[in-house]
Amino acid sequence: MNSLLSIKDLHVSFGLGLETVDAVRGINLEIARGEIVGIVGESGSGKSASMLSVMRLLATTATTRGTVHFAGKELFSASSKEMRGIRGGKIGMIFQDPMTSLNPSFRIGSQIAEAIIRHQHVSTKIAVSKATDLLEVVSIPRPSESMSLFPHEMSGGMKQRVMIAMAIANDPELLIADEPTTALDVTIQAQILEVLKGLRETRNLSIVIITHDLGVVAGLADSVNVMYAGEIVESGDVEGVFYKATHPYSRGLLSCVPRLDIRESALHPIGGDPPKLSEKTPGCSFQPRCKNAIDLCETTSPTLRSSTVTGLKVSCHNPMEPSPQMSESI
Questions:
Q1: Average pLDDT of the residues of the chain
Q2: Binning pLDDT at 50, 70 and 90, where does residue 330 land?
Q3: Distance between the two ends of the chain, CA-based, in angstroms?
Q4: Distance (Å, rounded) from C-alpha 233 to C-alpha 231?
Q5: Cβ-based neighbour number of residue 225 at 10 Å
Q6: Which of the two residues, 183 and 291, has the higher pLDDT score?
Q7: Among 319, 176, 155, which Cα is nearest to 234's?
């Protein structure tokens, strides 16, 4: 694999008073050039924390260990000046909420142009021209007129497109999209996903998409990593995870997705609550909620390893059998 981003044994912890919260617990991730990788899981599973650590945008209370290589450069040892060039230049990021990510006091054209000037050191005239072109790339109608709008004059979908335009303004090699379709209706979600697909095809852009929406992953990603309690519990190509998942948590997520093609299909929510990440447990983090748990799950933490049955990587002492009816759970 021609890896663009390589994450090895990444740990992220936050100090909260006398407690330490281990938000990310030793994940490994490889992203190839031109690949779209999905990271899915419940809120608090460590999805955003892992990618914010790559950008070195975590709070000062956070500590990280492990290694992150981007295009051969180790990011945790990079200087602040080097990271300022990488953030927004080589790696773009779409943050969770476009409503709060854009400055309400400035027109959207000047905000995009500012990112271009900062990294490309061009004149304001050239930056404005490029910003206008970017609005057309992300399918904003009447881009020249839209340049003069303030954020509050745009819909949520339009603001999200502006965020995408800012993220790709300097032709990054990697785009991190953190919940890019949250709070958007399904029609706008589909349009945003088409924009991201188009960027991969026209720019050979690698994309990491962080989401809790399995439908988004199914329609966009090449591979998917399922996270639970700061760990990757199952990973592989999208079709494999959706149709051959054997980890009880992955199967639980899939059973929570409503189907339109099955009449009166029942949803089966995962019982219990996620673990408290400040408490260290010797066994599997999912064991208290798992109907497939065995004695070993209480005492020994499983490791992520390849399955000879499914071809996926799974972290489970007692994985479920792949079901020929698995597609009915999606």
A1: 90
A2: very low
A3: 29
A4: 6
A5: 25
A6: 291
A7: 319
Instruction: Return the number of other C-beta atoms located less than 10 Å from residue 118's C-beta.
Output: 15
Percent with pLDDT over 70 in the chain: 94
* Res. 329: pLDDT tops 50: no
Per residue, what are the HEC states of the chain? CCEEEEEEEEEEEEEECCEEEEEEEEEEEEEECCCEEEEECCCCCCHHHHHHHHHCCCCCCEEEEEEEEECCEECCCCCHHHHHHHECCCEEEECCCHHHHCCCCCCHHHHHHHHHHHHHCCCHHHHHHHHHHHHHHCCCCCHHHHCCCCHHHCCHHHHHHHHHHHHCCCCCCEEEEECCCCCCCHHHHHHHHHHHHHHHHHHCCEEEEEECCHHHHHHHCCEEEEEECCEEEEEEEHHHHHHHCCCHHHHHHHHCCCCCCCCCCCCCCCCCCCCCCCCCCCCCCCHHHCCCCCHHHHHCCCCCEECCCCCCEECCCCCCCCCCCHHHHC
How far is residue 272's CA from residue 228's CA, in Å, rounded to a whole number? Answer: 14
> What homologous superfamily does CATH list for 3-221?
P-loop containing nucleotide triphosphate hydrolases (3.40.50.300)
The answer, yes or no, to whether residue 151 has pLDDT greater than 50, is yes
Contact predicate 133/106, CB 8 Å = no
Confidence check: pLDDT of 89 > 80: yes
Domain boundaries, the chain: 3-221, 246-329
Mean pLDDT of 198-207: 92
